[in-house]
């Protein structure tokens, strides 16, 4: 049965409702919303309300409407209040548009009144007497500090492994990355750390940075005035919804063409065709992992036909051959265009063979990108890329090959140009230097699997759902953490000191002490010994920037659930306890390193971190800038306004690599087939390519959506899009529960017949709690430990007939038809 | 495509009735909950509006309707096989709002795969699966109208399962 909300009337916000600025805390686009809150016993009327709209009349398309998912009852300053969370028409990012994720922010708030999100953690918990028992912050932080201090002083800080988010939005943001960063990179120098979605502490886009080009260099408005949009391994209608609908769409309506490089036909391809007409959309459905060869061929076409921007190349790029040699930290050499071409040169015929698309289409793509207009003026082209290549084959060189084309055509730093990653979360990174981590960084998940590390601090990461080689990781992590649980149970009647001794003995014998900081009791949290409850945006004030570097303050409008705290204040609590315990242990000099955390609020953390590096920026000034905020970097404050930068590198000087000459470098992106170990062999020995894809309906690993009836009703199991003929061959009906298996492990999902799916290629949604794709992904990474999640092959067998739940859902095409 | 072949006398009857019902609804509100001292019902009171007669319907030929008033367009469908929420002797008659529950654009019916499709932002809904959003941006499935069929085969709408786009109350 389709989920029916059975709501036919909602309270109306009164004129005097409080209004807070909210930036959607989900994807990188960061749409603007307004949170209206008002007393439980008050309401507006159809003709006298906070919106100033006559609600007694049917509103037209795009009219003001509070959908049921935009409403809740939440706690504010200890009192129950109504909440209506609606899109902001005046925000330039979304212009009042709403996504299926952002539109549900209100109902995904914890409410004891309406019963939503009761999975949220409310109190610290300690593994005690065979299960997790709620306790006080002082008690929990004391145990964390005592064990951590013992381990890092008995051995070294290398025995402390940290998994920590580095993003904005959600529970990230400048406040929280600073809090955790100060703890692990300033008070300590932890090098065995990793980021929420990958097994090391590294950039996902090292090559563009090494070329001098920061990965978020444009303004979203560039899509509206460009001639051509190139999207590589992205699916923006699903994953950056209102970037597509509010900006790319305008570009297409203004006459832009679009090139989409993706082995799979996505809803973005379909929507682009609907808007621009099929003749203006070129979908290059390349062989998986062959993007680099394609872009090398496009670059070759552009160079050979003289469509490069010579003036730009002379003025802004390195001209003297090799600038950076290939070495262990650089999987490709970097230098002049001519230097790169020696490696990149690829004919259309060669690329057509590798990529499985026609020579004519490769030539056409080059023309759309770079062939001057008939009047001789240059063509503007904006290029965007995301996980298809970031989590793809040969990350460094592939992204380098894409950026090469933008650089050669002078399409960076100019209106209608840009070469950017599309992004997942918002950004919000402000930490002390991570130079001590090294490059390549430690492959942390393998370190843990092989018995390395003794204490594991986890901050809003769930490796269970979001790592590769996940089956083995889970087995080992659980085994090692169980050793500590057993030791704690055996010492259950002992004092705190005896407990700590038991834990230390267990980790010295190969166990792992796990501290999990999260907003819910996650899957990896099942292995935790201490669980610390954190908060999300709007339960705290939170600053982040979006995919065009737009910095906003998303305001606190409600109380955290229970005693949950912002991550920055949890980090401060750990630091203060570390200082106390280390002093007790007599390590006074070390204890002194943990001073400087006397923050009372998240604003204190912001002022201690981000504000120190950006002295013009304060909460008060950001609040005044509202939902349009300011585009970073902030370069001044005048007439009551923060002054930002619309697009980077407008002066043609490139500095992301830190070179004094400020010249951009080209990447010698030599094609070498499958780069990561084991991929070629896996492909040869299995029937199906298991593509790893996203869906607009889910936010990331569904941490909130797993408790949302509307969402789980649609996809009770992770979908696996599959060609109907492949299904028939395996005797599968729509919704049947199937297992994907290979040498790495197995995972499960629901067969979703998809006419446009190619034979032998299935597309499984990423990060599902009901079937982790990471189980079947081999451990292969690139030289800088970037995972190749996208390239996995397996066989498929039926597990069970569709369950009643699965039988009730729609299995129709996801493509809009007019 | 959204069906424009609004047929017969029953349809014209409904249109007239709809217009009257709109005025009547306002009046009815006054009469149904008039005295300030009387308690207000906790639940929205829906009008019972005749949409068509079973004889007016052919399989997979959509009929434009309005419910609960003339400002809220919908579609009435006979699907040929019993479905969720279906009424009539074959359990196959359903009705839905055609205002997209994302941002209120008017949706069209694709009789090929029996979906409602929104030209605004490409959302689509499955009329054979209770109006479930197949793919899209809406935060609810498309409102389904609660139907009743009387002895004469007249089909009445008497409620809705979800909030209709663009109104704080399904009955304004």
Detailed description of the structure:
The complex is a heterodimer of chains A (818) and B (172). Chain A is α/β, with parallel strands linked by helices and 818 residues long. Chain A is built from 26 helices and 30 strands. In chain A, the strands form 7 sheets. Chain A has a 7-stranded mixed sheet with strand order 6-5-18-17-16-7-8. In chain A, a hairpin with a 2-residue loop joins β5 (125-128) and β6. In chain A, α1 packs across α17 (496-508) and α2 (173-187) crosses α20 (602-608). Chain A is globular. Chain A starts with 17 loop residues before the first strand and ends in an 11-residue tail after the last helix. The model of chain A has no long low-confidence stretch (mean pLDDT 97). Chain B has 172 residues and is an alpha+beta fold. Chain B is built from 1 helix and 10 strands; from the N terminus they run αββββββββββ. Chain B has one helix at 9-32, and strands at 49-53, 63-66, 73-78, 93-97, 108-110, 115-117, 124-126, 132-135, 145-149, 154-160. Chain B has a 4-stranded antiparallel sheet, with no helix packed on it.
